[in-house]
Amino acid sequence: MMLPYVKLLTPSAKFLPSPVEPLQHIRRTTVGASPSLERNCKLSRRNLSKSSLLLLLTTQTTLTPLLDFSNAQADTIDNPNPTNCENRIPTKKAFIDVSIDGEPIGRIIIGLYGDDVPAGTARFSSIVSGKAGISYRRKDFVKIMPGYVQHGGIRSYGVDAERATAAVGTLQNLIEEWERGKRGEICNVNKAGSVGIVVRDPSKPPPKTKLVARNGKLQVEEEVIVVGPNGTEFVITAVDSPELEDSVLVIGKVLEGMGVVEKMREVKTVRDNTSSPYFRVAKVIGDKRAVVAERGFNRPYSKVVVTNCGLIESQTL
């Protein structure tokens, strides 16, 4: 006959509860929890509601400064900015005539901000007028992107390349003005109809390091980048293009001829295939064929050329 209150002595039997021992007694003797701890572990719905309310109040108190800070930021943005883009007044006018496959499509008239970006305006004016010994005449638009068109500038070798380097307003001057725009000292917003000089290649990020195998050893090298801009390439935006603010110095805006820009955007281009997994792998392993292919992306199949360009001598802008 089994005793009603048998104490478990062997390790193998300690997990077998007595059939007649009360459940409450088993919980206390097996777990060994103190009565105070057991009371603290019991949470009623009322206590849980109070705890949730306390947590909500604490969270609200913590988030209040953040909300006030956001309001302060909004107030700061709404304040009038001394470098407001709407206050800029063009000081010069330039024009470029464009043709597609030899067929003229119209003239674009550009207003230049000589007071805000004197170096960029002086450089563009010297090239568009031919005073630098070089000109945009008979030079192509090399990229037609969804939001803008890009002119190739003076990319030839020899005398033209030397004159482009020695033109008024060096590339370093343009970069300094572009950095002022990054700091907010001058307006450098690429809105629809903006005209800007390329100081960095907008399609290329900063150089990245990669592993290459040379003579049986792994070495870390920077990605090979083609020759950067020389301060003669320019872009004309068709829509707001904030992505260009990291690579373009805005020097003016289109006053007339946005219809010409729209006709240029309708030209068929080489399809951008940078999202292809094969292209990505080729870029990672440093395949030069990927670099060559990337240069051809978004290039127009038709020949989009500046047939004539210059400054407009006018006192009324």
Automatic annotation (TrEMBL):
GO function term, MF aspect, one: peptidyl-prolyl cis-trans isomerase activity
Keywords for this protein: Isomerase
GO cellular component terms listed in the entry, alphabetical order: chloroplast
Coiled coil feature spans: none
PROSITE patterns, alphabetized: CSA_PPIASE_2 (PS50072)
Record carries keyword Isomerase: yes
All copies of domain PPIase cyclophilin-type, residue ranges: 95-311
Keyword Signal: no
Protein name: Cyclophilin-type peptidyl-prolyl cis-trans isomerase domain
Annotated source species: Arabidopsis suecica
